[in-house]
Amino acid sequence: MPRADLVLLHAPSVYDFRKKSILYGPVSDLVPSTPVFEMYPIGLTTIAEYLERRGLRVRIVNLAVRMLNSNRFDPEKLIRKLQPVAFGIDLHWMPPAHGAIEVARLCKKHHPGVPVIFGGFSSTYYHQELIRRPEVDFVVRGDSTEEPVLQLMQHLTGHSGALLLAEIPNLTWQELDGTVHANEITYSPPNLDHVLLDYSYVIKAVARYRDLASFMPFKGWLGYPITAALSVRGCTHNCRTCGGSATSFITLNKRCRPAYRAPEDLAQDIRNIARFSKGPVFIVGDIRQAGEEYAEQFLRAIHGYQGPVIVELFDAADREFIQRVAKAMPNWTLEISLETHSEEVRAAFGRPYKNAPIEDTMRYALEAGAQRLDIFFMIGLPKQDYQSVMDSVDYCDHLMRDLGGGPKQRLIPFISPLAPFLDPGSPVFESPGRYGYRLLARTLEEHRRALVQPSWKYVLNYETQWMNRDQIVDSTYEAGLRLNRLKARYGLIDPAQAERTEARIVRARRLVAQVDDVMSIGDAGRRAKLLRAIKPQVDDANLSTVCDKTELNVPLTGIKLNLPRAACFFIEQVAKRLLPQISPRSAEPTQRDAVTS
Ligand code: SF4
Questions:
Q1: How far apart are CA 115 and CA 89, in angstroms?
Q2: Are 340 and 392 in contact (CB under 8 A)?
Q3: CA 314–ligand 1 middle distance (angstroms)
Q4: Which of 25, 327, 552, 564 has its CB surrounded by the most CB atoms within 10 Å?
Q5: pLDDT at 351
Q6: For position 593, what pLDDT does the model report?
Q7: Is the distance from the beta carbon of residue 314 to the nearest atom of ligand 1 less than 6 Å?
Q8: Ligand 1: distance of its center to the CA of 350 in Å?
């Protein structure tokens, strides 16, 4: 097996989730991951691909998915066997805060001389806390770390002309005497031209390491191979709880405006993905963010694409735009995160658009033939109380009845809590009082400890002036129950599925109360024993709590992954890269390289 220079490890949310009794609740019902948050960030593949293009060998090991897939899989044994120059661990969002630290500890235990590098938004936020931990040697900050990680790896491998640590942008590091240095974030490319986002690296690496299991993005991906196409890093909006908002990007990543993928490249990424996958491609980011012209160029470039595509809109759109999308990508699904029925709550959350124009947008989408229209609501917003959550469910009734009607209901509402954590760096996290929030965990260590609490109520890192943790939990289950019944009434789910979901919600509610009872016992030993006793029921209630996960799936038929075509695609990509090396023009840098170097 070839030895990798850099091994990128993705940890589960809680390292020993297979042993612990934790009622995770509906924290991941609306994302492809399970509550273990096994889906690794797309940045791992862009870093890996970027380094590979420059001669380094990188291997991704999704420990979380491997632990989920097999109880016999021993992550410590695998870590012990790996012999890289450095380990990289993602802490992009906060859910893997416990697992990431524990995995770093295992790397250090078995390879004390091998540097451990952290990266991601949350690593950027907590770089000072991370670098002082004995498990961490470097933190690479910012939203685009491909080039700084390359420079760090060149330094660690003794590459000729490698930069000194003090010269590597975005790097937090420590001298032997413990002095910490946080180099400025000066690497923040203006666009996404420097990365390749077509997963060709993954295909190549799976073949090289003969290890498909470690590259799986999430459990069940082979059955539903959804992929992401990244249109942007950054955002023009300012949702109050989002760590990826415009203001968070400025303060955290020193990014003053979003970096966009060139519209033609974005279209090509999607077409490349379609060569090996028949699954839906989710276009991350509203394609109108970079302006009308960008959207127009992208739609022209993707015109005629027949595969399933999921498009997201951050606010209302006019009929003409919707029709252009439908014409360009006839097999499309629209997603809108409406968050709430209440214009007042939505404005307080930072999305000040009105209901009338967004309902018009929904009508246009259905009229233009969108395969599905997924509408997302959230619990835990500023100015939102228990009754407001129930009113949002009533509003779903109105939407399904008055907009989504017709022979086949295509408007599908979802509701979930803002959980487990408010994002560090988000406006609310930075000024909770101003927005009516109370923070219950602030430091990385506090979050790490919160993650191992026995139910999601105790994991939540906030409560609001309008709902405490009990009310957030209670309104979530009640809203889930009501919406489930509505979906059954409108024929979105069959009666048997509705019954199963209802039973799961009732069971989860009972378990929350049971955990509360256990937590009121003073004797820690007895508490632990009682929690262990209910672990089987807790594990059973941990998946698809307030809705069935499969409700999110765009229907797929036939072969979902085309492995022979993936192999051809891989050979083509290798040939493309080899050809310039034997051509006299190969000495000239490509346009992409010129941008990044
Ligand atoms: S939640 Fe709001 S701020 Fe965050 S990425 Fe989405 S639109 Fe932008």
A1: 11
A2: yes
A3: 8
A4: 25
A5: 96
A6: 31
A7: yes
A8: 9
**1-58 per-position pLDDT tens digit:** 778 999 999 999 999 999 999 999 888 888 888 889 999 999 999 999 999 999 999 9
The tokens describing 309, both together, are: 């595509």
Burial 482-509 (b: 16+ CB within 10 A, else e): bbbbbbbebebbeeebbeebeebbeebb
Q: Report whether 312 contacts 374 (CB < 8 A).
A: no
Q: What is the pLDDT of residue 577?
A: 54
In short, whether 336's Cβ falls inside 6 Å of ligand 1 is: no
Question: Which helix (H) or strand (E) segment is 278 a member of?
Answer: none
For 535-579, write each residue's pLDDT tens digit: 999 988 887 777 887 888 888 777 667 766 666 665 665 555 555
User: What pLDDT score was predicted for residue 203?
Assistant: 86
Q: Say how many Å lie between the CA of residue 158 and the centre of ligand 1.
A: 41
What distances in angstroms separate CA 420 from CA 48, 414, 416, one per listed residue? 29, 17, 11
Q: Which of 314, 351, 418 maximizes ligand 1 atoms within 8 Å of its Cβ, making it the mutation to test the pocket?
A: 314
What is the identity of the amino acid at 117? I
Specify the pLDDT at position 569.
61
Mutation pick for ligand 1 pocket among 121, 233, 239 (CB with most ligand atoms within 8 Å): 239
Pairwise CA distance, residues 205 & 236, whole Å? 35
Q: Which two tokens stand for residue 307?
A: 């595969």
Q: Measure 312 CA to ligand 1 centroid, in angstroms.
A: 11
Cα gap 101→104, rounded to integer Å: 5
Residue type, 37: F
Contact 395, 341 (CB under 8 A): yes
The atom number, within ligand 1, closest to the CA of 238 reads 3
Determine the longest span between alpha carbons in the chain, in angstroms.
Answer: 76
pLDDT value of residue 32: 85
**Rounded CA gap, 100 and 89, in Å?**
7
- In this structure, the residue with its CA closest to atom 3 of ligand 1 is 245
pLDDT at 197 over 70: yes
| CB distance 235 to ligand 1 below 6 Å | yes
Q: Is 245 in the pocket of ligand 1 (CB under 6 A)?
A: yes
Peptide bond before 420: cis, by omega within 30 degrees of 0?
yes
Q: Which atom of ligand 1 is nearest to the CA of 350?
A: 2
Whether the model clears a pTM of 0.85, i.e. scores above it, the answer is yes
Distance, C-alpha 212 to centroid of its chain: 21
Q: Which atom of ligand 1 is nearest to the CA of 286?
A: 7
**Ligand 1 pocket, 288 CB below 6 A?**
no
Residue with the nearest Cα to atom 2 of ligand 1? 239
**What is the reported pLDDT for 566?**
65
- Cα-based distances in Å from 285 to 205, 295, 312, 513: 27, 11, 6, 39
3-state secondary structure of 369: coil
Nearest ligand 1 atom to alpha carbon 243 = 4
Residue 523: partners with Cβ closer than 8 Å, 6 or more residues away: none
Alpha-carbon separation of residue 286 from 318, 429, 455, 517 (angstroms): 14, 24, 35, 45
Mutate to test the pocket of ligand 1, among 93, 236, 242, 426 (most ligand atoms within 8 A of CB): 242
Kindly state if the Cβ of 148 falls inside 6 Å of ligand 1.
Answer: no
386-393: average pLDDT: 98
Contact by Cβ (8 Å): 325, 361: no
